[in-house]
Amino acid sequence: MTVVAQPTPIRTTCPYCGVGCGVLAMPRPDGTVAIAGDPGHPANLGRLCSKGSALGETLSLDGRLLYPEIHGNRTSWDEALDLVATTFKKTIAEHGPDSVAIYGSGQLLTEDYYVANKLMKGFIGSANIDTNSRLCMASSVAGHKRAFGSDTVPGNYADLELADLVVLVGSNLAWCHPVIYQRLAAAKAERPQMRVVLVDPRRTMTADIADLHLPVRADGDAALFVGLLNALSRRGVIDRDYVGEHTIGFEAAELLAEDWNIARVAEATGVPAADLEAFYELFATTQKVVTVYSQGVNQSASGTDKVNAIINCHLATGRIGRPGMGPFSVTGQPNAMGGREVGGLANMLAAHMDFDEASIERVSRFWGSSTVAARPGLKAVDLFRAIADGRIKAVWIMATNPVDSLPEADAARAALRACPFVVVSDMSARTDTVAEAHVRLPAAGWGEKDGTVTNSERRISRQRPFLALPGEARPDWWIVSQVARRMGFAHAFSYFTPAQIFAEHVALSAFENEGQRDFDLSGLTGTDYEAMAPVQWPVRKPRKGAERMFGDARYFTPDGKARFVPIQPPPPISPAPGQFVLNTGRVRDHWHTMTRTGKAARLSAHIAEPFVEIHPADAEALSIRRTSLVRLENRHGCAVLRALVSERAQRGHVFAPMHWTDQFASSARIDTLVTAKTDPVSGQPALKMARVTLTPFHTRIYGFFVSRNRPRLICDYWAIAEAPGGLRGELAWTEEPSDWDKAVRLSFGVPEDASLTTLFDKTSGRRVYVCVENGRLGFALFLSPDPVLVSRQWVVSQLEAEAVAAAALLAGRPGADMPDQGAIVCSCMGVGVNTIADAVTRSRCTSVEAVGALTKAGTNCGSCRAEIRGIIDAHRLAAAE
Ligand SMILES: Nc1nc2c(c(=O)[nH]1)N[C@H]1C(S)=C(S)[C@@H](COP(=O)(O)OP(=O)(O)OC[C@H]3O[C@@H](n4cnc5c(=O)[nH]c(N)nc54)[C@H](O)[C@@H]3O)O[C@H]1N2
Ligand SMILES: Nc1nc2c(c(=O)[nH]1)N[C@H]1C(S)=C(S)[C@@H](COP(=O)(O)OP(=O)(O)OC[C@H]3O[C@@H](n4cnc5c(=O)[nH]c(N)nc54)[C@H](O)[C@@H]3O)O[C@H]1N2
Ligand code: SF4
Ligand SMILES: [Mo]
Asked: Which pTM was predicted?
């Protein structure tokens, strides 16, 4: 599959979030790739966010796994595949089909996922295949199924633009679904009467667009929406006709909600009664309402109940399936939906069929197998418990990094260490999970792979290749099919192209489906796979997809009626004295465990270090100073993070990103602190609700460095990131080394006789080391008993400077003639906070547009516009970092 440079751009789809933006990729003769948004793709209409825009910078082969390995030694595909096939076969023969497992990912393409599921559930005969979507979408799936009888997302992105009220619950849309956020922001600018309400314990960047922010306490959502149902009922705005004709169970839900008056909801959620009144009034009086929800809802021990509490309010008002109305679960990964379609979750069989007798029998006939699994398999958290206690003896992990992303992550790592046989398929040679593998299989990545993904609005789009397969990397579908053939299932896995697999997937969705199953691609039968345009499922008529579902109020339950689920909100989360609720999630420019975004210096420029966001009053009570280091701890693990003291946090709650791993920081794997408590219905872990204690990390000396090469990190704390021309990093020591010169030479590999420029200021205790090699900066290191105060961005810029400003570096500040941008806000245009603040204060720019016209900030992808507005609003004149 060698692909040569193309004169016309290749139409493909972004490999990051579930918005599923169309991308135009244009390989250039010099090997680089130009990236642009596809104006013809209905999800983004030409837009891209900062991560999508930087895709071209993540494609280098640096750090790629390029050859199969057994026990860390390069081997041939034949040997690796044979070993996987024989070990799986032997394990099954000795211990039964449930002694093996696959752990997959919403970053697999539908075709990859389809064959992995078919192998496990169809031929091995166990349903022990689960996916990281269990950590992501499982509660939404369970909530949909309880209410609709099927896992159906009713609406689409245009509904957000058409709505008069958009409620965002547990969603940081501005950072996590930036292109939907931009579409929403544009619609609101056009129709200022549109209202946006944000429900999130933190005042995130998404609050920028909100008319009302309800800072609920962790897990206050069920109470908030049960209270809403009660308020709707009291205000007499229940759509009695709809409820009577198309739903079942309203009375029970209404009865349970009766006790939830404003006072009680205020107490349970911590939200002031007046704000609750305002929200309830707005919801009651607005017909066109879309409620968007994400991980603040799903990743909870009451996640499924939260989902149904939301859906109940939409059903009660009949606001579903019509333009500008409906509950809307936005998906995280590029193919979270595709995984659900093929049966990537252990409790679904295939093509949205469950483990009922008729479905098992139907799928058996379709696949021509008599060994189809008869019951659901283990869900992610239980699956890793089964690995730990030896029930599962061979596991194959594909396109996910569970050593970092599962709760009780140290236990997940220990489980893999205890497992007799661990196979990992990944693009990256160095991840915390790949490190634990006996067999490493090099997977093709974005730009090399060929297949389909489904986005949040049920839209199936093609990912097309525009790069040759590097080294011996192979697509996941090929790897799985090869193992299946070697296990003796050649007849069922003789695929040569992803198009064949997709055609089979289409056929299964349509097989004996007379409209009883929502997932139906019959209209795509015989479609031209190469040219296939984005299309929303179900597709029943030839190539005509469905924009919305349930417009006819017919649901996929036996009687065609939707179900209300009576919800009893859980007691409010109240941590023991001295404890904090640890909330976790994402930052704007990084993707999960950073195996790809960590490669782009421009993406690390936004936030280059793991942090914990804490309210100023809490920080003060704990003697945690601004930008000092903090230790978070509980019985499962610990982490050391930079304190980000901010009023965006609420008291008693702290927030830390999930992105940093052992590859980028000394102790920042946040999931080591998260308890593996799961939702009883969906099995999704409560990843947003750990309990931790915080203590200052006693630091003698803080350091900051930039370096052309990676230094040896001989210190008690470190966090590194890509920088243009090298690396940047933060360091800390709990004890001062006895000989700094020696320590620095050792770390940065400076020979004894090579000269090193240093400066030591006795009064302040600050030291600076600067090493210039052949006129270029080799490294610069700043040490201080207090958090290092130097403009990071300016120091970083010296790595690529033609003439190094050595004297200024030693002085620790740029000269008057050297502009100091400050921390980067706009990563596309490389515009820093100081430049934007200058535009606001000196040039008197009062709008994001004016700042853009002057500085170019915010004029490309727009992901930073909320932050620019924040600077304007606050006249934030913070000095560089
Ligand atoms: N930049 C970036 N974008 C991404 C990703 C990424 O890694 N980086 N990953 C993608 C994936 S896979 C996913 S799943 C999505 C996730 O997208 P989001 O769900 O929007 O992102 P999170 O930051 O995980 O969490 C959202 C918010 O939930 C809030 N929250 C925590 N607890 C509660 C609660 O009890 N109630 C309420 N109402 N809110 C709460 C948090 O404060 C947080 O702001 O993002 C996708 N997009
Ligand atoms: N505390 C906490 N934990 C969380 C979350 C949270 O909010 N808080 N969020 C959860 C959620 S929603 C999610 S989705 C997960 C995400 O967590 P993970 O899935 O563990 O994170 P990724 O970094 O996306 O891992 C994907 C891996 O697949 C590799 N890869 C990329 N493309 C391919 C490919 O085509 N083929 C193969 N074989 N490999 C590939 C990458 O190099 C990387 O190692 O984290 C979950 N964990
Ligand atoms: S919003 Fe950004 S990350 Fe998500 S699909 Fe679009 S470009 Fe990719
Ligand atoms: Mo996710």
From this structure: 0.96
